[in-house]
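// run 5 | inverse folding | seed 20
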């Protein structure tokens, strides 16, 4: 549970430590995006660096995280790995289907925005 006085960055650091076991000492925050509302909850995307991570070496909190995985950025730039889905509320959002993993919903949307900012012309 977040502290009402926590910044979005502090919340991201705490959640990263609690949910996947990466020490706050190994997290460098670069910045944050604009908040996104989803079902009455504001989600603020935070961009940072956590170093080179091997998912099998993470300390996963199974009450919070179902599965952790890593994918190279280049895979997101391959057009055959991106589809779109239309939700009942008429939102059309990207869905990434890469190496048996599905990244969709608000996570897919945040990933899409991040890649567009980071890679510009390399990502379409």
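// decoded
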């Amino acid at each position: 549970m977040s502290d009402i006085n926590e910044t979005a960055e502090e919340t991201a650091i705490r959640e990263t430590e609690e949910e996947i076991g990466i020490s706050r000492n190994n997290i460098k925050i670069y910045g944050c995006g604009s908040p996104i509302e989803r079902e009455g909850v504001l989600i603020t995307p935070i961009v940072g660096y956590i170093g080179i991570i091997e998912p099998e070496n993470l300390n996963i909190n199974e009450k919070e995280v179902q599965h952790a995985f890593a994918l190279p950025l280049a895979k997101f730039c391959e057009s055959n790995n991106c589809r779109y889905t239309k939700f009942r509320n008429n939102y059309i959002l990207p869905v990434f289907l890469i190496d048996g993993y599905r990244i969709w919903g608000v996570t897919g949307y945040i990933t899409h925005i991040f890649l567009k900012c980071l890679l510009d012309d390399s990502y379409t």
